Amino acid sequence: MSKIKEQGMKYNLYSWSAQKKINPMVVSKAEGVYFWDEDGKKYYDMSSQLVNSNLGHGHKKLIQAIKDQAEKMAFMGPGYSVDVRSEAAQKIVELSGLEGAKVFFTNAGAEANENAIKMAKAYTGKWKIFSAYRSYHGATFGASMLTGEPRRFIAEPGVPGFIKYDGPYAYRAPKACNFKSEEDVTAFYLELLENQFLYEGPDQIAGIFFETVVGSNGILIPPKGYYEGVRALCDKYNIVMICDEVMAGFYRTGTAFAFHQFNVKPDLVTFAKGATCGYVPLGGVIVSEKIAKIFDEKKMYSGLTYSAHPMGCATTIATLDAYKEENIADNVAQQGKVLAEILDDFEKKHACVGQVRHIGLFSCVELVKSKETREPIVPFNNDAEGLMPKIVGMLKVEGFSTYSHENMILVAPPLNITETELRDAMKIMDKVLDSVDNMIK
Ligand SMILES: Cc1ncc(COP(=O)(O)O)c(C=O)c1O
């Protein structure tokens, strides 16, 4: 074992792992869509790390912005007006298209969601918060309560008032649904949601969270009309609509924010990851005018030592400029089309691929034992044999780095990937899926 790994295993606690069961790769270099291990082996970063390295590694403009800001003023408390603090907020509001909105900056995504919860409560004076079962909203205590999937369990019984709903997922809807059209799917899930609102008491419900496009839990893209219907329900019952765009924001789906793909304006939008592409941490909440206004007179009970950290804000400005200068939206449109064709082909040709879902450069491959029964390749929250880590390991051996969740493999490369890089990387996945086809025979 190399010295770096030995030291790491002795002193670090690695996320979401039984420490004796992991073997963290020692990374020695990262550039563009690639990184290298200590033996010089090269990997395609096909998950953009944790879907945050949207502009890949070693981006000169971002590095320069960090250097310049560190020289000029590395830190100033959040109560002061600082040029980069003001400019970053303006740029984010303008990018969101939410006129009159303001930004409350945090360190990262979970904290953004924590503060969105408090704002929804402050705005409505109500207390219950809805979020989807198939969701991940972060690992702080409140964000863990929002999270619907099993990473929530450690925080339970937790805080009262966090209610879970079933978001649209036609592929795994109850068999009896037998949907005939996308409109049927929308109508079903909206009816389910309204019933749940009624039984939880609309006068108790402060807010409802959505990952605008569900990320880690399987790239679930809402059916046509779903968000319009949700918006109408939120207006009807005075419930704050909160889009968590921590993963889906900043061009991941093709548009600046994922909610731009749908005909809705959320009341709160949380963001992080792609705001700085991971070069330094930064997150925040875009607070719509109607909610921001209540804090004109009423005290906002939110604050962090590092809120709107100048290093983060300077990096955000450089990142947003780079997205524009490098025509990232166009590249996502072009490469997203290439990726979609490749994935659709995988769904047809590979016995182990139940369904692929994609929007922009945000996609996943859902693995099954049988296309007919749709039985997942591993049982829910019980991959005792470690089959999914094994498949991810097979990809890694071939130089394709990504991660899996339940029976799904995520494909979300940096947004500046070229067509050649994308096609080459996906050839690796094709080959590994051939082996998985054989494993389920
Ligand atoms: C949709 C979503 N929300 C929130 C978070 C939490 O963000 P962070 O890890 O920056 O706290 C994540 C992290 O993956 C996420 O995907």
Automatic annotation (TrEMBL):
One of its GO terms (molecular function) is transaminase activity. SUPFAM superfamilies: PLP-dependent transferases. One of its GO terms (cellular component) is cytosol. Signal peptide: none annotated. It holds the Pfam family Aminotran_3. Keywords: Aminotransferase, Pyridoxal phosphate, Transferase. It comes from the Bacteria. The keyword Ribonucleoprotein does not apply. InterPro entries: Aminotrans_3 (IPR005814), Aminotrans_3_PPA_site (IPR049704), PyrdxlP-dep_Trfase (IPR015424), PyrdxlP-dep_Trfase_major (IPR015421), PyrdxlP-dep_Trfase_small (IPR015422). Belongs to the class-III pyridoxal-phosphate-dependent aminotransferase family. NCBIfam families: PRK06062.1. This is Aminotransferase class III-fold pyridoxal phosphate-dependent enzyme. It comes from Sinanaerobacter chloroacetimidivorans.
